[in-house]
Amino acid sequence: MKKKRQECLWGNRISSPRARCLLVIVVLCFFSLFSSQVSAQENRNISINKQNVPFEEIVREVEAQTDYSFMYSTETVQSIGKVSVNVTNVSIKRLMDAVLIGKPCTYQIEGKVVIIKIKEQPVQDTIRQKAVKIKGVVTEADGLPLIGATVVVKGTSVGVVTNATGNFELEVPADHDLVVVSFIGKTSQEVRITGKTEINVVLQDDVQSIDQVVVTGIFNKSRESYTGAVKTISASDLKASGNRSILSQISNIDPSFNIADNIEFGSDPNQLPDITIRGRTSMDVNVRNLQEESSVKSTANLPLFIMDGFEVSLQRVMDMDDELVETITLLKDASATAMYGARGANGVVVITLKRPEAGKLRVSYRGSVNIEAPDFTSYNLMNAREKLDYEVAAGMLDDKYNPNNQNLMELYNRRLIEVERGVNTYWLKYPVKTGVGNRHSLRVDGGSDNFKYAIGLSYNNINGVMKGSSRNTLSGNLYFQYELKNLKFQNDLTISYNKNKNSPYGSFSEYSLANPIYTPYDDEGHIKKQLVETISQTSRTPDPAGNPLYNASLPSRDDGSYTNIQNNFAIEWKITSDLFVRGNFGFTKQDSRTDKYLSREHTSFDTDEYKGENSNMKGSYTYTTSYMLSYEGNLTVNYTKTFNKVHQLYAGLSGNLAEDKDESYSVTGRGFSSLNMKNLGMAGAYALGKPTSTEAHSRRLGLIFNVNYTYDRRYFADFSGKIEGSSKFGSNDRTAPFFSAGLGWNVHNENFLSSSNAINLLRFRFSYGTIGSQNFSSYQALTTYRYFGQENYKYWNGAYMLGMGNPDLSWQKTKQLNLGVETSLFNGLVRLNVDYYNKLTEDLLTDINLPTAGGFSSYKANVGEVRNRGIELDANVFLIRNSESHIMWSVGGNLAHNVNKILKISNALEFLNSELLDEAGPNPSFLYQEGQSMNTIFVVRSLGIDPATGSELFLNKDGERVYTWDPKDKVPFGVNEPKVRGNLRTMFRWRDITLNATFSYRLGGHIYNQTLVDKVENTTTAAKRWGNLDKRALYDRWQNEGDVTKFKNIKDFNTTNASSRFVMKENALSLNTLNVNYEFDTEWLKRHCRLDYLAIGFYAEDVFYLSTVKQERGLSYPFARKFSVALSARF
């Protein structure tokens, strides 16, 4: 009986999953619904006494006294003119009746929104009898309803505005069949209604109205009067530019946000990218770090990431859900970044998250299935027969060196038999797979005018193409906003958990090097530990080669995890309509750990170090834990005022205080007697005798101001500044001022262009300022010591100097000039933006040498200078924009050109440069040298291969031809940075189907082709000689006298040193993203599925890569092509 009673109460709805979901959400949101009812019962009294004032002044006064907001068009307000009113303690309805009496406008109240509209004109009764009544809904491109959109019968003043759900009803005179639908910031549409009673209209963003507000993370500015160089990216722009990573999506949109092509780690999901904006401004003081790769890897050049006013890490941005993002703003020049002081030199990325809107409960979901497939197109490896032919041609199986040794002939016969019976192992296939992942994002939001809330949950599962590699992120978000009179309270809490695993299959390079004549399994199907057994003691036979698959078969662990908690609280006090105060406080806490275990059977322990009495030390376990905690508080005052209709003033003042703490501990245990002892406590001893640790602690304090003045919307000026103090610098110079000034001219608002139909926007901008950088060690200005640990004398521990302090260590400063032009032509059909910049970074932190008698070799000081100059261009053209046919096609592109030059370095760097130039080796030198770029490649000039001998001919510094390579002959030879980089894009939309494609290109840069060095010529070691090689090692090397080739004698096993033969000019083109999106008919969804919005999208990313340089890409981890299917729904 009890069960039947429950069914009677709920009916059949409780059995529906959707109904059960809504029931739970209603319970969770009970407080907000209660708040809405209370708000609805409020009846605030209004008192105003204004004579002959603009209608906007009445609006500001009402908004200051009540919770009501207004919605109207400029044309509507202009028709009202000036008004006079004197009322005391009246309702909003009585006030509006008094204000609009005798005016051509009326009003409509929707909740707490007052909509001002033109009065409908009376029509004749005969026409009314024949009028057609239509209804419909107006939405944005993503399906959200547009509240207050205007629907007008073309050629008349008959019209209505849409309600809170975007719906409308309109009587259209019988002699008219066109209605015009418009909304501020959207492209108007004309819709023919012949034979229709219902219409659905989707309004697209108007290119003339996009980005009208610049979000800087501290102050929000009007784009019309902003002098800074910025790029604003909307949520729809992100969706059109990919489906995987926010960082790659930004790079696909703006080339100044440069992600270095990671040839080493390819598509490894656990690798943080190397990012710069407008070139590198800081030096890595350890120049030897530059020799490891062809690009500078340094966090000192990383831009600052700000999310809703607070700094976040690169790792946090990489793992975040893009469904949470409302806009992303790139701040590039001094005018835009001066308010960030010492943190703004490398550019700032400001991320603004979506906020809930008042109204009915909304549930949004987006899910996708993601596929990653390995891309081997850059590999040009030999097959088994080619590899055997190479060994013969190179004389590796030639017995003439030892006539009495038959082992080489036996080895050749054995290999020939293997080849003839079809052995041709494709090693690249073993460590990879097709990775299948999934991504889900669920968001619930709603509330009343006084209380709004949003609850979000997201999960991102990335399975990389290397077996066992993955990255999983689970994130929850809770946001609420409460308004009480003139106060607004906001709190945003986000908790994220990440688990990442590296592949147990090791480096992908081990498989590309494995000889295809070898097989990973023996005849009985057991995995081999060694691919080649020692045949004789002669050095000309292959050494034992480890089977890379063997280690993958052993118990192992290589993973990490972190938990990130971030909470941001804000309170805003609107003192008057012109003045408000906002206070923010945020904290971030992150706990991380990594674990890496190698069993005692791992081939890395098959060395002399672990033989004899040390054999019991095989096996290792490294455990690392780290802790990060940061606090930040801001207090901001904003004032804006318009005087005499033509003078607009904005002023802002802000203070901020922040503290950052970081700690990490690491310990390595050795000596595991069993394979499965994957626990640190089972180790026999510590490696290196003790654990290690690091610690950092810093504070900063700043005072920021900004003033903006605009005259008649034509001329404007900006002035910003910050005085900042930081504990990272010397006690004698811990504070520094930073400033910027800018001027601008809105030419399109001049009288001589105000009526132009061709030029809709023409704006000139100029700015100059100084900004700083402090992405450095917390204790670089202090003298620091470290204890010896277990080494002590009686009861005392000894210590040694870790770093020598400098109390005069100052801030690294960047002076930047920017000139910009923005233009829009023919109602937005053509858009073009151009920026030129000149950045001079002074007082770079570098090492200064000391006399060796002092006991310490160097200390940090400000002596370096670097300059970056460049130009950025962005253009877009609509080839087709036909609202009647629902067809839109646009093409666009952008480019970035940057020239980097070192103007001054320290004596310590000069000394280290001379040491590196004297070192021999196959890799080029990357040095900091005055007059050169930070990315200059240093090699010995080559004249090519002598056809008579097959040896390389060089050109020394004296201009003489020599056969001997000398490191002292190294010279700068090319810059590892493209002269021009950019993107090409196209968008085609027909009705509900949208196609987007984005290409990227690089032109004119030089790269050092390491593949030619390692896989074609430099076969000096047995591992390389007997392993697999590039096909060019067989077909393109010199073999006979008279051969004209690019590569030296095939029988020459001497080391090939860094030569200009391997420095190549690269032009590259890649298809970064291709997507097709289909949006289902809204009315059909509402009738049949009770959904407000439904769309399905197909994405392909990193589809192809074309380059004039043929080299292997993805050495330790391969690149991947990525495909996904995404579904978005809202109800």
Give structural attributes.
6 domains; single chain; 1131 residues; mainly beta; Immunoglobulin-like; 14% helix; globular; disordered N terminus; Phage tail protein beta-alpha-beta fold
Instruction: Please tell me how large the radius of gyration is.
Output: 34 Å
Strand content: over 45%
Number of helices: 20
The overall average pLDDT, rounded, is 82
**Distance separating the two termini:** 35 Å
Helix residue percentage: 10-25%
Tally of separate domains:
6
Looking at CATH, which topology of the largest domain would you report?
Maltoporin, Chain A
Q: What CATH architecture of the largest domain do you see?
A: Beta Barrel
Structural class: mainly beta
Give the strand tally: 53
Instruction: Enumerate the spans where pLDDT stays under 50 for 5 or more consecutive residues.
Output: 1-44, 123-129, 207-211, 290-297, 534-539, 849-856
Shape: globular
Strand count, sense and barrel status of the largest sheet are: 22 strands, antiparallel, barrel
Report the CATH superfamily of the largest domain. TonB-dependent receptor, beta-barrel domain
CATH class of the largest domain: Mainly Beta
Describe the structure.
It is a multi-pass membrane protein. Pfam families: CarbopepD_reg_2, Plug, TonB_dep_Rec_b-barrel. By secondary structure, the chain is mainly beta. The chain folds into six domains: 1-41, no CATH class; 44-111, Phage tail protein beta-alpha-beta fold, CATH 3.55.50; 120-206, Carboxypeptidase-like, regulatory domain (Immunoglobulin-like); 223-358, Ferric Hydroxamate Uptake Protein, Chain A, domain 1; 432-935 and 976-1018 and 1055-1130, Maltoporin, Chain A; 936-975, no CATH class. The protein has 20 helices and 53 strands. The strands form eleven sheets. The chain has a 22-stranded antiparallel beta barrel. A five-stranded mixed beta sheet has the order 15-20-21-18-19. Strands 42, 43, 44, 45 and 46 form a five-stranded antiparallel beta sheet that branches. Residues 1-44, 123-129, 207-211, 290-297, 534-539 and 849-856 have low confidence and may be disordered.
